[in-house]
């Protein structure tokens, strides 16, 4: 499979937009458009789709002109509704639970929410862009923690052990079972057992593919 992805960047800061473009193109990806406001983002994606050349993923700032409040995330939500096959990765300065919850509502396929100040590794960021483009998830741990904390399914989550909740949080970040095992310094088999217990307690049928399991958990937590 060609690892190269087609990206649209929506960021009103010219320096940041150009920096993201350079970062991604230097690693072999195609930045097919860069825009500075939400309206331009929607028009650009619609035009690319109409031309038969849709992007694989959109990287968008949460706050964009003219009010710098929620234009970016509103555009992201609309894109997910209008073009569900296109991944959406939003960047934010803070964990804004309302925006994160709205973005994750419905299908959680191909979605990411990262905090700008916590992206400390360029490779991790690029990996997140590719993962979302391929239909996976990329959620900052702080976002996961707050979503789990405010979940309306606390009665069900209460059945999980502390370790299972920890595993669930790492899964929701988009980590594979092997990555969870490395983070917790346990065996892959131990993680697989925790994952099986999580799905059993949440009443979810495990499916093949780590991302599908993660997405099922996220969808369940946000319904």
TrEMBL record:
Q: Positions modified as 4-aspartylphosphate?
A: 61
Using the record's annotation, list all stretches that form the HTH luxR-type domain.
153-223
SUPFAM superfamilies from the UniProt entry: C-terminal effector domain of the bipartite response regulators (SSF46894), CheY-like (SSF52172)
> What does the record give under GO molecular function?
DNA binding
Q: Which Gene3D superfamilies match?
A: 3.40.50.2300
| Keyword vocabulary terms for this entry | DNA-binding, Phosphoprotein, Transcription, Transcription regulation
**Residue ranges of domain Response regulatory in the record:** 6-131
Any Gene Ontology biological process: phosphorelay signal transduction system
What is the protein name stated in its UniProt record?
A: LuxR family transcriptional regulator
From which source organism is this entry?
A: Streptomyces kanasensis
């Amino acid at each position: 499979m060609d690892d190269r992805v087609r990206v649209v960047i929506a960021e009103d800061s010219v320096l940041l937009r150009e920096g993201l473009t350079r970062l991604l193109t230097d690693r072999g990806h195609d930045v097919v458009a860069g825009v500075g406001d939400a309206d331009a983002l929607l028009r650009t994606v619609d035009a690319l789709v109409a031309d038969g050349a849709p992007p694989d993923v959109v990287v968008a700032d949460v706050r964009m002109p003219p009010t710098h409040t929620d234009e970016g995330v509103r555009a992201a939500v609309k894109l997910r509704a209008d073009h569900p096959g296109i991944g959406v990765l939003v960047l934010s300065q803070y964990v804004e639970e309302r925006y994160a919850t709205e973005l994750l509502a419905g299908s959680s396929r191909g979605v990411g929410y990262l905090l700008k100040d916590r992206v400390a590794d360029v490779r991790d960021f690029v990996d997140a862009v590719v993962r979302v483009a391929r239909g996976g998830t990329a959620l900052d741990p702080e976002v996961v923690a707050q979503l789990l904390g405010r979940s309306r399914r606390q009665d069900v989550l209460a059945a999980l052990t502390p370790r299972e909740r920890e595993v669930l949080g790492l899964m929701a970040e988009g980590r594979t079972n092997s990555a969870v095992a490395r983070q917790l310094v346990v065996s892959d088999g131990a993680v697989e057992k925790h994952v099986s217990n999580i799905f059993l307690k949440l009443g979810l049928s495990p499916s093949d593919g780590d991302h599908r399991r993660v997405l099922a958990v996220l969808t369940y937590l946000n319904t």
